[in-house]
Amino acid sequence: MLKGMPVLDVVSDVVCPWCYIGKKRLEKALVLLGEGDWEVHWKPFQLNPGAPKEGMDRQEYRVRKFGSLAVSRQLEDRVTAAGEQDGISFHFDRIKRTPNTFDAHRLIWLAGREGKQDEVVESLFQAYFLNGEDIGDAEVLNRIAGENGVDAEQLFTAGLGRSEVAAEEEKARQVGVSGVPAFLLNGAPVTSGAHPAGLLAQMFRDFRG
């Protein structure tokens, strides 16, 4: 049985559509729990850790990963239908590049130090999945940071957060995270996947005892 304020780590990547759906379902799950404050931390996981700094052409990447654009679009249609149920209007047609997300995770880490992590995560998801923006681009990241009151200058001038993000991702892999979204409660893995809100809430409740 876990005591005290629950600390929930959400391991995700901002180019993972199921992670965005999982975020919306998590918000509903926490409302269903109705047990006071939960401390939520967003932790990094790169789906494409070997991606070049400038990112990749998305269509070419999807063909390599899934074998054909037809299969890729079938998967996108499935995600789009799921997203609509949770108020997300995915616009995959607007996305031209699959970015390297390391710097986006550094921004999320920095936002966590300033108490604005959830807002920045939401903005990154919206920028990529709704607007088709390249969230690996420094200008885009600086704009998102500024819109949420985060000073991101040190990310690009002093390399702030590099070692911290790398360490957090390695820690997630060490505790068994291999797919996202994944949820850890007080450091212990609970589940992975964008489960329905009711099921997610029940899992957290059962895990706490």
Walk me through what this model shows.
With 209 residues, this protein is an alpha+beta fold. The chain has one domain: Glutaredoxin, CATH 3.40.30.10. It contains nine helices and six strands. The strands form two sheets. It has a four-stranded mixed beta sheet with strand order 2-1-5-6, sandwiched between helices. It has a two-stranded antiparallel ribbon with strand order 3-4. A hairpin with a 2-residue loop joins strand 5 (182-185) and strand 6 (188-192). Helix 1 crosses helix 9 (197-208) and helix 4 (102-113) packs antiparallel against helix 5. The radius of gyration is 17 Å and the shape is globular.
Please outline what is shown here:
The chain has helices spanning 17-33, 58-66, 69-85, 102-113, 117-130, 138-147, 153-157, 162-174, 197-208, and strands spanning 7-12, 39-44, 56-57, 97-98, 182-185, 188-192.
Distinctive features:
alpha+beta, globular, 4-stranded mixed sheet, Glutaredoxin, single chain, 209 residues
What is the strand and helix layout of this fold?
Layout: E1 7-12, H1 17-33, E2 39-44, E3 56-57, H2 58-66, H3 69-85, E4 97-98, H4 102-113, H5 117-130, H6 138-147, H7 153-157, H8 162-174, E5 182-185, E6 188-192, H9 197-208
Parallel strand pairs: 1-2
Antiparallel strand pairs: 1-5, 3-4, 5-6
Number of helices: 9
Distance between the termini: 5 Å
Described by strand count, sense and barrel closure, the largest sheet is: 4 strands, mixed
Poorly predicted runs are: none
Task: Report the radius of gyration as a whole number of Å.
Answer: 17 Å
Any idea what the shape is? globular
Total domain units: 1
Tally the beta strands.
Answer: 6
> What would CATH call the homologous superfamily?
Glutaredoxin
Helix content: 40-55%
CATH architecture: 3-Layer(aba) Sandwich
| Element order: H for helix, E for strand | EHEEHHEHHHHHEEH
CATH class: Alpha Beta
In the sheet with the most strands, the strands line up as 2-1-5-6
Oligomer: single chain
| Structural class label | alpha+beta
- CATH fold group: Glutaredoxin
Q: Quote the beta fraction.
A: 5-15%
- Provide mean pLDDT, rounded: 94
